[in-house]
Amino acid sequence: MKILLSGTASDSHTWNLVYLRLFLEEHGHEVVGLGPCVDAELLAAACLRHTPDAVVLSSVNGHGYRDGLDAVRVLRTRPALAALPVVLGGKLGVVGRRQDEEVRRLLDAGCDAVLGDDLDALRAFLAAGARREVPA
Amino acid sequence: MTADTATGPSGSGFGAFVAEASAAGRLVVQPRMGFGDPGHMRTGLARTRAATAHTVGTLTVDSYTRVGALAAARAAVADGARLNGYPIAAHSPDTTRAVLSGLRGPDFPVQVRHGSARPEAIVRALTAAGLDATEGGPVSYCLPYGRTPLRESVSAWVRACELLAERSAATPHLESFGGCLLGQLCPPGLLVAMSVLECLFFVQHGLRSVSLSYAQQTDAAQDEEALRALHRLAAEFLPAGVEHHVVLYTYMGVYPRTESGALRLLEASARLAVRSGAGRLIVKTAAEAHRIPTVDENVRALETAAAAAALAGAPAPDTAPEDGEIYQEARTLVETVLGLHADLARALPAAFARGLLDVPFCLHPDNAGHSLGFIDPAGRLRWARTGAMPLRPDTGADADPYTSAGLLTALRHVADRYDRDSGDGPDGPDGYDRDSADHPDGSGRPAATPLSV
Ligand code: B12
């Protein structure tokens, strides 16, 4: 799959992005990396330009739920991106555990999966996404 | 070694406070603490002040304010959302004054730590609240902190230095974050050089009180050598009359996950600070690997570090060379950059454009990205590739690109060492003997248990 890998608007961490690129490439994916501090408009423009098969958003600075929500909402306003698979993960809040209400809000806004830091779940999500690509 | 921690004009302010403590043989300890809620922030400062340690206070700024998204910071405050720091430009100067009132004073200076490549709004907000000490640098708050072009960061930092110098009542203080950069896997020569270069930049733009940083890395002896090189280069390059001290950061990379591992790494940094004559230590808490720490966790870290420092005794006589490999590397880099142009606002971007400075693993478009650091079998940080920098890579290095697993092993090298159960024998993971005076609880620690989060 062609994957667009991106940090979120307020998050400047990059070791997560460096790591995830290697991880995704080793699993056979093609990766377009946008780097850190990508706001929702820049993300949407990059999706339209690169036409990826899926978007992997990574956020570890504790603002991930808010930044992720902004990003997903903007992507879903663009008709061409309405069905693009989007997954968000990392250390999303500041309290160190999953916040169910925030997760629900993201799913309601059209995020396909909210994964915390579970890489097996990411692998599974992409594997399922790849299968959806194959015509039945 | 000579205590250059107290050089420069005596006076009031953040730098003078640290100089006085050093003269009295006390390490100043400081948290990295920031909360969105002003009441919570005030509690944190009050507890820092009251801790059993010689402390200074910190306002760590949130990520929205750092990237200049002030509307997002205000919206988060309005929603009551929990932020990863104090939104100093979203709260009014009166609110910040109320947070500080009765706490900040000559006996308890407070510094603003932010991570912004465009810091003018933050400097305006902090000076409007009567503060005069902050941190950063045109390179160290740009390359690791987002996508602002380096030249824009340099211009913004010129204005920020001037604003700070103009608007502060007392002697303003500015600390370089150059000794940290991305926090891990960058060999010490470049960290030391960046600290010296950024402090020279601050001086070129009107500052007279600065601090040079260095972040603890993988090997205690190598760190000690780096800190001695930093002291020496500061004395050689900073003009007479500029007050300066060295500040050590407890490990800034992937942190131990267990409570005992986290606290032992913190204690090792406190001993390193004392051995190498640092004036100030900025601590990490046992929550570091997991989430934003609570006030209690911050206080515990401050007190743990202060106790370890007190037990460490006086600075060691020179055991690490002052003019060894790290000194030579750092000096070469500093001289190469100054050789491009005397004005660092021009020399620094030119140096990055030519790859003469090149931060390993940095994704920023203005960084060449041809250098590579690695941890050698003895646990020291070295260069696998140096790109166009005027440095030689290690001959024994494996210059192959990292795999994801290899990268994770390198990133977790320090954490794993400290998280491993205490089968360390008489030597701690920092490689220093722990006699009973140095480390009273060295043998009797409980087995490492994961911190509940
Ligand atoms: C190194 C570091 C930095 C460096 C970063 C340099 C850089 N350019 O990357 C510096 C010092 C500059 C820095 C700055 C800041 N940091 Co920082 N940083 C760290 C630290 C110590 C290590 C991060 C690291 O290298 N990880 C290695 C990578 C490989 O692991 P990872 O990022 O955790 O990602 C893994 C998983 O999360 C997962 N994952 C990540 N993304 C995704 C996505 C998906 C879909 C999936 C499935 C999985 C997944 O996969 C990765 C591999 O396992 C961590 C704490 C720690 N872990 O010890 C704090 C930490 C991440 N930082 C933190 C914060 C808050 C900041 C700051 C905002 C400052 C502040 N207020 O304290 C600023 C960032 C400013 C901004 N605009 O965002 C907090 C976040 C708090 C939270 N989430 O609750 C942490 C946890 C420290 C703490 N306890 O306070 N930081």
From TrEMBL, chain A:
Q: Per its UniProt entry, which superkingdom is the organism in? A: Bacteria
* One of the record's GO molecular function terms: cobalamin binding
In this chain the B12-binding domain maps to 1-136
Task: List the SUPFAM superfamilies.
Answer: Cobalamin (vitamin B12)-binding domain
Q: Which InterPro entries match?
A: Cobalamin-bd (IPR006158), Cobalamin-bd_sf (IPR036724)
Q: Name one Pfam family in it.
A: B12-binding
Write down what this protein is called. Answer: Methylaspartate mutase
Q: Which organism is it from?
A: Streptomyces viridochromogenes
From TrEMBL, chain B:
Residues making up the signal peptide according to the UniProt record = none
* InterPro entries assigned to the protein according to its UniProt record, in alphabetical order: Cbl-dep_enz_cat, Glu_mut_E
Composition bias of kind Basic and acidic residues appears in 431-442
Family annotation (Pfam families):
Met_asp_mut_E
Which GO BP terms sit in this record? Answer: anaerobic L-glutamate catabolic process
Query: Recorded GO terms, molecular function?
Result: cobalamin binding; methylaspartate mutase activity
- The name on file for this protein is Methylaspartate mutase
**Superkingdom to which the source organism belongs:** Bacteria
Q: Which residues cross the membrane?
A: none
Keywords, A to Z, come to: Cobalamin, Cobalt, Isomerase
Disordered, as annotated region: 416-453
